[in-house]
């Protein structure tokens, strides 16, 4: 399904887009090694409550996995809600291509029937207003150059009462977590990333994106300013990562 990369929001977006397409072939392997598999458990926990009062299998629901990359999280969402219609959205053609090859290799037609990959810029989602029941994003918001604009787009596309779930490395506020991030990001992350992908620059950029990311509390305030409600934070693994959940006002669940 290789296509030309879509236009992106700005020059930062174009650089990040090219970087992720270049490391797509080894991205999942690097994540597994660097986290010792913890990222799998984080994703499973984050998607477990993605839909509010759903049918057990997610029938009738439409879910957007934003910044879906190689569709790692999209597959996890499919396992939890096998009848939901899933959109795996990302601005990197290389990442989505790698993800679809991975799904095809499973020799299971079910994911292929339920997952639609779609090239998109998170700052201008090509979706109708109030068209999705939930939006999930794992380790993607820190790469967005205009987080307020992206948050407004997410609110626009959610149906009333729909949920936004973000799994992210927010900038830590506790000094112990800051020290851990600093040491890990300057040693393990670039070495493993370079070994798995051959691209050292990408794994020097990623620590910088984490350091420049908002704290979880700052991000909560931003979501509230843009109209989200019931915003909560769940720290994971001593605060190394966090799950942020937020709701769009309205719907029968309010």
UniProtKB/TrEMBL annotation:
<feature type="binding site">
    <location>
        <position position="90"/>
    </location>
    <ligand>
        <name>S-adenosyl-L-methionine</name>
    </ligand>
</feature>
<feature type="binding site">
    <location>
        <position position="70"/>
    </location>
    <ligand>
        <name>S-adenosyl-L-methionine</name>
    </ligand>
</feature>
<dbReference type="GO" id="GO:0009234">
    <property type="term" value="P:menaquinone biosynthetic process"/>
</dbReference>
<dbReference type="GO" id="GO:0043770">
    <property type="term" value="F:demethylmenaquinone methyltransferase activity"/>
</dbReference>
<dbReference type="InterPro" id="IPR023576">
    <property type="entry name" value="UbiE/COQ5_MeTrFase_CS"/>
</dbReference>
<comment type="similarity">
    <text>Belongs to the class I-like SAM-binding methyltransferase superfamily. MenG/UbiE family.</text>
</comment>
<feature type="binding site">
    <location>
        <begin position="121"/>
        <end position="122"/>
    </location>
    <ligand>
        <name>S-adenosyl-L-methionine</name>
    </ligand>
</feature>
<dbReference type="GO" id="GO:0032259">
    <property type="term" value="P:methylation"/>
</dbReference>
<comment type="function">
    <text>Methyltransferase required for the conversion of demethylmenaquinol (DMKH2) to menaquinol (MKH2).</text>
</comment>
<keyword id="KW-0489">Methyltransferase</keyword>
<keyword id="KW-0808">Transferase</keyword>
<keyword id="KW-0474">Menaquinone biosynthesis</keyword>
<dbReference type="InterPro" id="IPR029063">
    <property type="entry name" value="SAM-dependent_MTases_sf"/>
</dbReference>
<dbReference type="InterPro" id="IPR004033">
    <property type="entry name" value="UbiE/COQ5_MeTrFase"/>
</dbReference>
<keyword id="KW-0949">S-adenosyl-L-methionine</keyword>
<dbReference type="Pfam" id="PF01209">
    <property type="entry name" value="Ubie_methyltran"/>
</dbReference>
<comment type="pathway">
    <text>Quinol/quinone metabolism; menaquinone biosynthesis; menaquinol from 1,4-dihydroxy-2-naphthoate: step 2/2.</text>
</comment>
<protein>
    <recommendedName>
        <fullName>Demethylmenaquinone methyltransferase</fullName>
        <ecNumber>2.1.1.163</ecNumber>
    </recommendedName>
</protein>
<dbReference type="GO" id="GO:0006744">
    <property type="term" value="P:ubiquinone biosynthetic process"/>
</dbReference>
